[in-house]
Each structure stands twice: as C-alpha cells, then as structure tokens.
Specification:
Length: 187
C-alpha cells in the first residue's frame, strides 16, 4: 500500500472506533446500553450494547446515581435469546441521560426481576418518565412479566428531543428502581 492509503486506512479505523458507541445504521442514530456491565457486548443479532457508565456532560450517555450488580451467567432468564442483557442491572438510579441529535426516537427499556429475595422483601414498584412525560406508572417488573427472571421490554415511540438531551427518570415507590438495558433508536 502507498503511504496515503495507509494514512486513510488508519483514519478510517480511528473513526470506526470513535463511532462504536453510537452505531449509525443507514444514517440513523442508535445507542444500546447494557446496564450493570461496564464492558461492551454484541448480542446474537449482531447489535453492539455499550457498557454502563456514570453520566457527565459531554460524555454522550450514562446514569445518574445508583449502583450495579452482575447476577452471573448461572441466572437463567426466560423470554429472551440474549440473557446476558438481563443478568446485570443498575438499580437505585435517578435517571439515564443520552446526548442525541434532535429528532424522534424509539426508546426500549429492558427489565427482568432478578433479586433473589424479592418475594420475601416485598415488591419493587417504581415510575418511569421519558422526556418529563409519564411512561410507566407503578411498574412491578415481576408482576408484569409474570415471573422472576423473565425478560420484559417496554417500548415507547415518537419520543421527541429538541435540546440534544434524552432523559429517562426513575422514581422509587417501593424498594429501588432497576433497569437491565436501554435502547435509543432514531426513527
């Protein structure tokens, strides 16, 4: 290869790495975050899920508050071909923030109740707002999924962003809110 071809290949490679956190499929913004796991993960469909991190302005995405836990691969999750997404979680967080281009988005929230003492400690109940609008009221993941260790996906279409920030807030009612994965997909 000639020198200019090597330089172009190096620049292109760096650009691909820089965009890895924000896959652009057919020119559309895509962000998938595997809550509770700091490492990236590629699911069985070939989608890249970015690692969990704290949000700071200019950091593209992340959670505000909370803690993470990895329940381990021995936890079997019903209702999914990708149990890894549901074996880790972020809990007790107040919100998730993503810096996105203005436009409309589909937001998918992935849940599974994996806390082993949920039945003795009482239900986990919380609310979720997206862009300041109520999205889920009094959600009890175990009850809605029909079992513990069962995947539950909630999808919200036409979520409008006008200020470059998409925010999902979690409001505790009983115990701490939890989330296993978040997808933000440009429409």
């Amino acid at each position: 290869m000639k020198r200019h071809q090597l330089i172009f290949a190096a620049v292109l490679g760096a650009l691909v790495i820089a965009l890895a956190g924000y896959a652009v499929a057919q020119g559309k913004f895509v962000l998938r975050v595997n809550a509770g796991d700091t490492a990236s993960y590629t699911d069985k469909a070939g989608n890249v899920w970015q690692g969990d991190k704290w949000y700071k302005k200019g950091g593209k995405y992340g959670f505000i508050d909370g803690d993470t836990i990895d329940r381990g691969s021995f936890v079997k999750i019903q209702g999914t071909n990708d149990p890894k997404i549901y074996q880790t979680e972020r809990y007790s967080m107040s919100s998730f923030v993503a810096e996105v281009p203005n436009g409309k988005y589909t937001v998918r929230l992935h849940f599974a109740e994996t806390y082993e003492n949920i039945e003795t400690d009482g239900p986990r109940v919380f609310d979720v707002t997206i862009q300041g609008k109520p999205a889920l009221k009094d959600i009890n993941v175990q009850k809605e999924a029909g079992a513990v260790q069962k995947a539950l996906i909630k999808e919200f279409k036409a979520v409008e962003v006008t200020n470059g920030i998409l925010e999902v807030k979690f409001i505790a009612k009983e115990q701490n809110p939890e989330i296993n994965g978040i997808e933000v997909l440009a429409e």
